[in-house]
Automatic annotation (TrEMBL):
PANTHER family reported in the protein's UniProt record: MOLYBDENUM TRANSPORT SYSTEM PERMEASE PROTEIN MODB
Identification of the protein by name: Molybdenum transport system permease
Gene that encodes it: modB
SUPFAM superfamilies attached to this UniProt entry: MetI-like
Transmembrane segments: 6-35, 47-68, 88-106, 151-175, 195-213
InterPro entries: MetI-like, MetI-like_sf, ModB_ABC
Organism, scientific name: Luteolibacter pohnpeiensis
Similarity section: Belongs to the binding-protein-dependent transport system permease family. CysTW subfamily.
Source domain of life: Bacteria
Topological relation to the membrane, as annotated: Multi-pass membrane protein
Function text: Part of the binding-protein-dependent transport system for molybdenum; probably responsible for the translocation of the substrate across the membrane.
Length: 225
């Protein structure tokens, strides 16, 4: 194990946690709309939100690179207006991870919302609670296990993201080198022992996150019976 490996671990976990935190409120809002409302274009939005699950991560990374680069519509505006560069920085890592985990959050949270009996929310509304209070005082608490499971699952997915990250953030040691990138670079340079150590460590963290997610989903299912 090299001295900088723990920095890679903390960078990966920190970027993954931040990406999930950024994607979470948008995922909650979209999940509620998909679970509780019928509106024009719903199936189209649902399909677009699921694209990162089925498209090659490299393709997603290429799209982000074109959008966030200095010559792209978003990256160009940020550079001209605020002198902020996104690609090949830690910000690109976080954005790539957030995009890739967003569909997992939406699927988990939408399922949690759909399992809540609508009469509970209607009862809150009949008692004079505003839609906002019903959402935060009834809907969110009842869906908390599903939301927590989605967060853990998304975090585990972010830990292993490679394709989109390498396209938009590159290999910059100490800045954008996450665990999957470090494993790949170690294999390329013939440092198999380091690659195995990092792979085992990432697998252990991912296993813990998935196990906790499964436990939460199981408890939620038993409570709904």
């Amino acid at each position: 194990m090299k001295s900088g490996d723990w920095h890679i671990v903390f960078l990966t976990m920190g970027a993954s946690a931040l990406a999930v935190a950024i994607a979470l409120p948008f995922a909650i809002a979209l999940s509620w709309l998909l679970a509780r409302r019928e509106w024009f274009g719903k199936s189209l939005v649902e399909t677009l939100a699921s694209l990162p699950l089925v498209m090659p991560p490299v393709a997603i990374g290429l799209l982000l690179l074109k959008l966030l680069g200095r010559n792209g519509p978003i990256g160009g505006w940020l550079h001209r207006s605020f002198e902020i560069d996104v690609v090949f920085t830690w910000k690109a890592v976080v954005i790539a991870l957030a995009v890739m985990v967003f569909p997992l959050l939406v699927r988990s949270i939408r399922t949690a919302f759909e399992e809540i009996p609508s009469y509970l929310e209607e009862a809150g509304a009949n008692l004079g609670r505003s839609p906002c209070k019903v959402f935060f005082l009834i809907t969110i608490p009842l869906a908390r296990r599903g939301i927590s499971a989605g967060i853990l699952l998304a975090f585990a997915r972010a830990l292993g993201e490679f394709g989109a990250t390498v396209m938009v953030a590159g290999f910059i040691p100490g800045v954008t080198e996450t665990l999957p990138l470090a494993i790949y670079r170690s294999v390329q340079t013939g440092d198999d022992s380091r690659a195995l150590w990092l792979a085992g460590l990432s697998g252990l963290v991912a296993f813990a996150a998935i196990w906790l997610s499964s436990r939460l989903v199981g408890r939620s299912s038993r409570r709904s019976l």
